[in-house]
Specification:
By secondary structure, the chain is mainly α. The chain is built from two helices and no strands.
Length: about 60
């Protein structure tokens, strides 16, 4: 895992934790936006960085 990717995951975790703490301390649900955005960022990163599926070595195409 590269340094930039580690930093991105760290920032995602920070945003989620800051949202939870802000929501608990202030009681204002506006901090739920931090939690939602942090989770969406994490899901998007996991989806975008998933390994490519194995492709068969055989090519499909015309046979003649």
């Amino acid at each position: 895992m590269s340094g930039a990717l580690k930093a991105a995951w760290g920032l995602t975790a920070f945003v989620i934790v800051a949202g939870v703490i802000g929501w608990i301390v202030t009681g204002r649900p506006v901090f739920a936006a931090f939690v939602v955005l942090g989770v969406l960022t994490g899901v998007g990163a996991a989806f975008a960085l998933r390994p490519a599926p194995d492709r068969s070595a055989r090519k499909e195409g015309p046979t003649s």
